[in-house]
């Protein structure tokens, strides 16, 4: 009885501790993922804004005579910022890209971030890149004409989420180690707690056994021969 109660109490305590730790870790991981993603969006938005202002000085929305200068500009800025940079015309055609040949890229007219940029807003989206084959975060900003009135295209800055995934991977390892540690501590604490909790029951059980033995002895002595 003693060992059964102790095992049940210990098992219940460990299970509750693990469930609590898992739930807490899950919500913490989600919060960290959201924070890292939001920080990355903020950084890319700043970069896209600065690049769009620079791009509007050398690009009028046409690509025929500006292609070489635009490509050099795009690659230099992309290397400096450590991002992928894409210049998109108002009709969705890619004018320049720091990683791929624009002629081999699909029309971007329907991309969510580009649609928002054409409306003069900051557009963003997370999806699998068809050219890179990686999960990417895209942020696009409008490019205005020299008068600053009409949108002639968009600058799109993108970055793969491998950095965020690597950081979260390390956090998950720490989290798993924490679960093992909590389980171990829960086992030790649960064993000590159950021992103290069940100590009065142990004494009562011992007393009952003692009284039972004394009654048996008395009964045997009282038996006639």
Describe the structure.
This protein is α+β, with helices and mostly antiparallel strands. The chain has 2 domains: about 80 residues; about 120 residues, PAS domain (Beta-Lactamase), CATH 3.30.450.20. Helices cover about 60% and strands about 15% of the residues. A 5-stranded antiparallel sheet has the order 2-1-5-4-3, with helices on both faces. The longest helix is centred in the last third of the chain and has 61 residues. About 5% of the residues have low confidence.
Brief descriptors of the model:
single chain, 225 residues, alpha+beta, Beta-Lactamase, 2 domains, five-stranded antiparallel beta sheet, 4 helices, 5 strands, rod-shaped
Looking at the structure, the CATH topology of the largest domain is Beta-Lactamase
**Poorly predicted sequence stretches spanning 5 or more consecutive residues:** 217-222
What is the name of the CATH superfamily of the largest domain? PAS domain
Total discrete domains? 2
SSE topology string:
HHEEHEEEH
Structural class: alpha+beta
Main sheet characteristics: 5 strands, antiparallel
Overall pLDDT: 79
- Give the CATH level 1 class of the largest domain: Alpha Beta
Share of helix, binned? 55-70%
In total, the number of strands is: 5
Q: What would CATH call the architecture of the largest domain?
A: 2-Layer Sandwich
Residue fraction in strands: 15-25%
Q: Please, how many helices?
A: 4
Instruction: Return Rg in Å.
Output: 34 Å
- Strand arrangement across the biggest beta sheet: 2-1-5-4-3
What is the rounded distance between the termini? 37 Å
What is the overall shape? rod-shaped
